[in-house]
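Notes from the 1:1 (GR / supervisor)

We went over the backlog. Supervisor wanted to see one worked example end to end before approving the batch request, so GR pasted a single chain during the call. The sequence is below; no edits were made to it. Supervisor asked that the structure be written out right there so they could see what the output format looks like.
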Amino acid sequence: MIRSFAVAVLLAAPAMLSAQIRLAEQIDSVDAYIARVMVEQQVPGVSVAVIRNGQVVLTRGYGFADLEHRVPVTPKTVFQSGSVGKAFTVMAVLMLVDDGRVALDAPLTRYFPDAPPSWEALTVRHLLEHTSGLPGYPEDFDFRKDRSEDELFALIRDQPLGFAAGARRGYSNLGFITLGILVRRVTGMFYGDFLAERIFRPAGMPTARVNSEADIVPDRARGYRLVDSVIKHHEWVAPTLNTTADGSLLLSALDMAAWDAALHERRLLSADSYARMWTRLVTTDGTEQPFGLSWQMPDVGTQRLIEHSGGWQGFTANYSRYPAKGLSVAVFLNRRAADPIRVTRGIQRIFHPELGIAGMPALAESDPEMAAFVRAFVADVSANRLRASQFAPALADEILAGADRVAERFRSYGTLVRVDLLSRSVTPDDVRRVTYRLSFTARQILIRLDRDARGVIIDIQVQED
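Structure output shown during the call:
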């Protein structure tokens, strides 16, 4: 028996050594990749956590958390979360569901008797899904004016709804501010104190907290922006607007590693609530959308991705999980308009090359008309000549509102050189859904289009590698 055990150990040792060497090579590749990203995107500092099956593979800081004092980023450096913080608001509300204190499909008027009549059809679930019809911040919203929760709610309740509850998804920060107010109304606690008591401490997240402009916060990073290619401090925002439940958290790479372990082990929430959180939403017309309760949930090839990104006051962030691979990546960057999703994708490809767009298998093209349509559509996007008639009415306004920005983005990809079909399907109501890999001279992207029987685009999703 002793001899057999010794032989087993000797046989295992080369495999263990090979795995250690491979991991060291992957970490070196991450270091080189982040160094390149920081130059390309002019980012002062980056913090990264890579976790596999709930175990930390890498937590590391790069560059500077504070340029004036030349303070380096470390795994303990705390960054503003942006909308990554919405995922914690979702968990807080689901905890109240598990406690029997909130019902997802109860009308909001149960918790907000002072709500306007237009809210009668709205539920807690609609807020979590971004399907309530509540808008984002009003165009004339003053981000330098302090407002109490009561004042914010008075503003929110006066906003007209953009569409019928559940009809489609429309991202709404005001909806998530409302969820934070809901937590206080149900528990009597500020939502940040609820997060600290029910999530941060139980999960072992030592530096996670709601933002505070007044408190001394050790290891706090500074947020930056580019002005005419020069790094500047980000503009000032009223302190109370950095405490709302639409994403006003301070988080470190170590905090995210601890939270990922809690998610991996399915701690903190019931099994039912985890299922609710990560079940794709279906709008009232029966269309499945690649989103859960706030979480983005696209398919990357054959893999389901679960993630949430954000950006605010000179910071951007992304937290991304491939459950089937057991791989999670969290990244924080301290420059406005830096691209955390692209950084996450690059790190994921280092550990699993097959997750990259380039590694996805292509199908034989059997619909030349659709391939030609996609090529023509890309040309229209790049030339900023999209027309409302190309889209379903519910989608046209949203697409055309950001057409200038999207055109500039597509032009940065270079010339389209190849179109590869990755998937195709036809629904019972004759909607054709296709996913193509578009290879440009400078970039590869995925584009998924849904076209109805008339050839009108009723849904579109774009994913960058």
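Supervisor's comment: The mean pLDDT is 92.
Batch request approved.
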